[in-house]
Structure to design on (430 residues):
């Protein structure tokens, strides 16, 4: 007990040293407190920090990846010769949801415009950022500063980002993380608290840099975040590795992506987290990295493990399961195993028809994949019916005077970012 009380006195003295410059009146009050009061206050403060750090946090290392969105052929206006047949027309593709008109979106749009980013790429970046914006705001709200200086920097960073000044907000977040590093080195007894704050702050700053297209700087921040993460924070470390893997995937460096996703998987397996709900996502991303890197045997194994993990975690008819069976179907289809791919595509379509509204882009793309498999199996009528349901016109037939014309290859991939599918549309048969 005496040792415990002695440790509390040391903690009190460290607290006084850290706060003397800014909170002198409060420090004087704390100095007169009995040690048992300090013990109760300390326990309450640590509990509050835990709530702030982990409340609302979710593992993002298992989010499914996708590749750049394609431009589907648009559905032409149907000629209505017989009004009674209008009900047989396929559902038109859903119109893109307008981008939210917020200062954050406007601020990023200005940065991308100044960089001369292509319109199509800029639109994709803005939509991706818009999808992550709520999570980014929530994440900033969970960061609990470990020092008054870091608290001021975080406050100013939140205000800057909310006003649309993404560049200044990012710089302030980086400075706040550096302040947490410095404070953590000074006070070893709170090193884990400062480490978590530094890691979370760098994750947000890295996300902002990635949205701007500064992949190398973002990767540096994600690596620093992983280094700062306390050893017992499994989810945060996996999240850092997932970010690094996603960046490498975006650069088409599939070897590096595989390394990061494999490291995340190793952490989960060593911790005994076999039933973790995001295990399937990590396995799916690892399978995709192996698939694109040319390691077919490993890719098939990881896809099958991802399917088993997602079925166990989410049930047989969840959209996560649809994403994995679609990817596994594409794996077989690209290798000429259409008989094996067809039931997987059909299962993906069945799940999405239950979960998504007609005309949804993700549903349409799975319908197109199934149609391509059916066409390759000689079932042209069924294939065209699926393409009509997906909102696509029938395949164009070659002109009689150009019998040697070869149709160009098209790719059909998801546009919602959350499925993480890779959907290839093979060349239509003859």
């Amino acid at each position: 007990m005496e040792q415990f009380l002695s440790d509390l006195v040391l903690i009190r003295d460290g607290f006084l040293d850290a706060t003397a410059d800014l909170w002198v009146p409060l420090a004087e009050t704390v100095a007169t407190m009995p040690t048992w009061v300090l013990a109760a206050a300390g326990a309450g403060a640590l509990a509050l920090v835990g709530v702030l750090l982990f409340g609302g946090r979710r593992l993002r290392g298992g989010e499914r990846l996708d590749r750049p969105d394609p431009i589907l052929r648009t559905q032409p206006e149907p000629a209505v010769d017989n009004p009674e047949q209008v009900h047989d027309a396929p559902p038109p593709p859903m119109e893109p949801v307008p981008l939210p008109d917020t200062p954050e979106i406007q601020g990023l749009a200005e940065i991308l415009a100044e960089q001369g980013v292509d319109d199509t790429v800029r639109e994709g970046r803005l939509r991706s950022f818009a999808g992550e914006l709520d999570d980014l705001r929530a994440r900033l709200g969970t960061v609990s500063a470990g020092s008054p200086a870091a608290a001021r920097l975080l406050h100013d960073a939140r205000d800057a980002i909310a006003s649309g000044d993404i560049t200044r907000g990012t710089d302030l977040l980086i400075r706040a993380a550096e302040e947490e590093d410095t404070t953590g080195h000074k006070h070893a007894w709170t090193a884990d608290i400062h480490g978590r704050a530094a890691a979370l702050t760098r994750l947000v700053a890295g996300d902002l840099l990635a949205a701007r297209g500064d992949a190398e700087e973002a990767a540096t921040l994600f690596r620093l975040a992983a280094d700062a993460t306390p050893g017992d924070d499994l989810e945060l470390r996996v999240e850092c590795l997932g970010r690094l893997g996603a960046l490498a995937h975006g650069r088409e460096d599939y070897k590096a992506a595989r390394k990061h996703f494999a490291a995340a998987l190793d952490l989960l397996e060593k911790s005994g987290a076999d039933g973790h709900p995001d295990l399937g996502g990590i396995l799916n991303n690892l399978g995709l990295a192996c698939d694109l890197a040319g390691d077919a045997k490993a890719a098939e194994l990881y896809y099958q493990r991802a399917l088993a993990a997602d079925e166990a975690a989410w049930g047989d008819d969840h959209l996560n399961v649809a994403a994995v069976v679609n990817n596994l179907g594409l794996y077989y289809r690209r290798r000429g195993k259409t008989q094996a791919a067809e039931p997987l595509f059909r299962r993906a379509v069945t799940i999405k028809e239950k979960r998504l509204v007609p005309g949804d882009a993700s549903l349409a793309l799975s319908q197109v994949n199934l149609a391509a498999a059916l066409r390759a199996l000689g079932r042209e009528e069924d294939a065209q019916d699926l393409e009509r349901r997906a909102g696509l016109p029938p395949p164009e037939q070659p002109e009689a005077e150009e019998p040697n014309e070869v149709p160009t290859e098209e790719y059909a991939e998801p546009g919602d970012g959350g499925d993480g599918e890779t959907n290839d549309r093979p060349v239509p048969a003859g």
In short: The chain has a mean pLDDT of 74. DSSP finds 17 helices and two strands in the chain. Residues 280 and 309 are 5 Å apart (CA to CA). Strands lie at 410-411, 424-425.
